[in-house]
Amino acid sequence: MNAPTDIKRSKAPASSAKVVRTFNREMSWLAFNRRVLEEAANPAHPLLERLRFLSISGTNLDEFFMVRVAGLKEQQLEGVEQPSYDGLTPTQQLAAISREADALAGEQQRAWLELSRLLAEQGLSAITPAELEDEERAWLRDWFAKQMLPILTPQAIDPSHPFPFIPNGGFSLIFAMIDPSDGETVDEVVMIPASIPRFIRIPGERARFISIDWAVAAHLDLLFPGFRLIGAGAFRVLRDSDIEIEEDAEDLVRHFRSALKERRRGRVIRLEFSAGTPDDLERLVRSGLDAEHAIIAESGGFIGIADLGQLVEEELPELKFPPYQPRFPERIAEHGGDCFAAIRAKDILVHHPYESFEVVVAFLRQAASDPDVVAIKQTLYRAGKQSAIIDALVAAAEAGKSVTAVVELKARFDEEQNLLWASRLERVGVQVVYGFVEWKTHAKVSMVVRREGEMFRTYCHFGTGNYHPTTAKVYTDLSFFTASRRAARDAAKLFNYISGYVPPKGLELLTLSPRGLRERLTALIDAEIANARAGKPAAIWAKMNSLVDGQVIEKLYEASEAGVSIDLVIRGICCLRPGVAGMSTNIRVKSIVGRFLEHSRIWAFACGARLPHRKARVFISSADWMPRNLDRRVEAAVPIENPTVHAQVLDQVMVANLIDNQQSWVLDGDGNYTRVKPGKKSFNLHQYFMTNPSLSGRGQALEGRKVPKLLLDQGG
């Protein structure tokens, strides 16, 4: 499929031109976050949704510094200058990242200026103290005196008062003041507690907000009575937040509880100062935080772009996407809500968020309450703070069923929440397993064993996304339900591998990493190469979050030059260079960024037919094509054999991704992403699935129905 013509280009960082066979991973990630930021300027989105994209770009950039940049800085400080796969040393990467991140931060500020102006025209304003009316000013002063003064703790900086510890993500103010008692200059730091919202809503019908830093600045006379201000600034701290796993850690729980405390005190990686912060105060902060090696940034606008997300929560529905109510699969409704009966009748694929994640919750709730269910086994990578999944597992254990939960403690930024879930599950008798010390368990698998007559039947759920009810509302993922005995036997071996380190031999359906997934993927690509060389149709369609693995990239290059047609939909990082003569001539790469976050992983191999075709081998998986997924994580790839589900995944989901031209960007061989032009046939992937039901979940309503003609016409 050929991409539509472009109308807008996102330039690649200058360093990518030096890369011979791959793009730099970090630069590719920054390019992805730029695409997210571009949506903040997309007039097709409502204003508060544009602000949400801006906030997300800020959160993304923060986490990038806390993890990826922190790792590179560690290498640099330890004198490691070994080039990465793309040929750049840590020092070269850090220099390129600093330039690109500063440019990105500048664009974020410009986006905020534009959005704040447009939002003000629609009745939502972020104001300064000078814009307050008299009644508002009186209310704010009273609120500050009663609500904020008891919380804030100014700290003088002098030999007897060392610089205070500022936790990761901490936002603080610093002042140079004249002390009225002796006329001497004193430096004061005021930390803003993380529990305090960044914006204060002024009472009234109008949505008027003032930031907490402006509120403090307007009431220094209450905070420092009699003091005279001579200089001020604001700063924000980002620290190294990666947690290293000790290979000989005998108690992962104890290790993570300790590591989470240390995360707050990690090395300062980035310091962001407000514009105009006096040099002497900036030096004081850098020295006080031992931030000699930190990347310093000066913001000419709002510090902490991620905090703008608070404004998105304002009840202004006309400035947001129209509400969407996901469908519950009709096939299950046809069986009176009996998930087991529906799955027993036929495999079901559920497409989130267009079809409700509630079906997964219902599956486990039914298992918990069904007296014939004897056992439940469940992986948990991310489950969220309000988890109906956890509640269902607790109910099952309390009902006397055998429940096993594989809780992944190494899920970055969810470690603390997962520790809490693990403790709750253990208290009710769930057998909690923490998996491998050196590998993350990233596979999304649930299995329910049920007594049916004289036998036991196992029902399985395999997903591409997490068992997370909140993110399931905005992430596109696939849930596959089956009562296949082969799948059941393989799922049991997967859980035994994680809990008892029993090697999963003789797998009948699944392919697992780190035992065999890389080899299976290579063999599938090799089969397409052989077909191309034999003159048969040869093609690969794949959808994933990231493509980084060097071996897979080289194998795709080999396939391209053998004549295999390759179309890749990669939302985030892509280190492969497409469309380069003699290397990747037949490879096309696109990225989709829109209302929902594309998260599902799908692989399709033509097997001698022209895609899409029922002969193709189709897989869904929890794994991206990255070294960590193929070599250092427990992942699962599931072949789709049921004809209806096969058609839904390949002819419907994959085709729709490939032909989308409203939310898509195309990558070229120089690292530039170009927004595609709709042309005569405009097609919005997310809008399509919001208005067109899936195939396998519709039951008799769509029995025998084929792929919608619209998709086939546009897919050509």
TrEMBL record:
Its EC number is 2.7.4.1. Keywords: ATP-binding, Kinase, Magnesium, Metal-binding, Nucleotide-binding, Phosphoprotein, Transferase. It catalyses: [phosphate](n) + ATP = [phosphate](n+1) + ADP. The gene is ppk. One of its GO terms (biological process) is polyphosphate biosynthetic process. Catalyzes the reversible transfer of the terminal phosphate of ATP to form a long-chain polyphosphate (polyP). Residues 135-311 form the Polyphosphate kinase middle domain. This is Polyphosphate kinase. Its cofactor is Mg(2+). One of its GO terms (cellular component) is polyphosphate kinase complex.
